[in-house]
């Protein structure tokens, strides 16, 4: 059906140079853009199968580079080499660790052995076993919980105080030490003190940013996975704390410094994964999409700071089960079909600095009565 627009000569018309108005979350709080949702379903047919030939080499190579980088940083006596090796190690471990996001969405039978392999090679050694994200991240994707007080991965950062942003980023530097304390001290204490066990599980067992989130006790097969992953991480953490007796403090401190950089990178990515403009209201899928962020090509920097498909974070919220290796093609199809000025384009942003600037400016706006958080 062809639609004709009547032009009122009394009203000023946009010039050819005027960019189209960007779609926003507010426009779609009550009703979805059903045409975009249908396009996301129809245009991505043939995509969606997780490929072991992509997942395994990517994860293994990333982990190997991470360990090599840390080893060179510890063993080298040249400061320049240490800095380069430490940066390579942090970036490689960052990419390897981001596969935890994929583990929460892919079907458990899609990649036989991948969850166990990732936990043994990455999750447990880096003290972030997959149970810390599984069962938590899925809440973030629930239609009625995204962006609400029940969402473990949401804070209205754009509506909070200006000092909230640097604090949000800087606290990540302490994450490796906090994880070491959790697994080496609190887990063994929890075996004999039930109150410590409950506190550790409810408050310190999820990779979340909402301080009000309380995790429910694990059940069934998931509880079994928690037990072996937590036991493995606890034994490893105790070994790390004991390692200075044999090797001195230098190796452990260097490793913690590299992992602090990894945590900082992830926190910066988290800062720009959403626009953080919702304050507890339920949102449609389209509103959630527009509150989330794509940083598509041609820029290559986003592939470094938002690896394993996370540069397509808004698209991921449309299709949470889409494997990371299919997201670039899914984006290409949707962007090509829906075009400039579409709702889909409203979630596309040029880069991290622009996004940080937008959120920072938003925190400086004085709002009547303040916000509920911050």
Residue-averaged pLDDT: 91
The poorly predicted ranges are 1-16, 370-374
Radius of gyration over C-alpha positions, nearest whole angstrom:
22 Å
Count of DSSP E strands?
0
N/C terminus separation: 49 Å
Order of helices and strands: HHHHHHHHHHHHHHHHH
Judging from the principal axes of the Cα atoms, what is the shape? Answer: globular
Class by alpha and beta content? mainly alpha
How much of the sequence is in beta strands?
under 5%
Helical amount among residues, as a percent range?
40-55%
Count of folded domains: 2
Write up what this structure looks like.
This protein has 374 residues and is an all-alpha fold. The protein folds into 2 domains: 52-271, no CATH class; 275-363, no CATH class. The protein has 17 helices and no strands. The protein has helices spanning 34-42, 52-75, 79-97, 99-103, 114-123, 137-140, 164-170, 175-192, 194-204, 220-242, 244-247, 250-271, 285-290, 302-305, 313-318, 327-338, 352-363. Helix 2 runs parallel beside helix 5 (114-123), helix 7 (164-170) packs antiparallel against helix 12 and helix 8 (175-192) packs antiparallel against helix 9 (194-204). It starts with 33 loop residues before the first helix and ends in an 11-residue tail after the last helix. Residues 1-16 and 370-374 have low confidence and may be disordered.
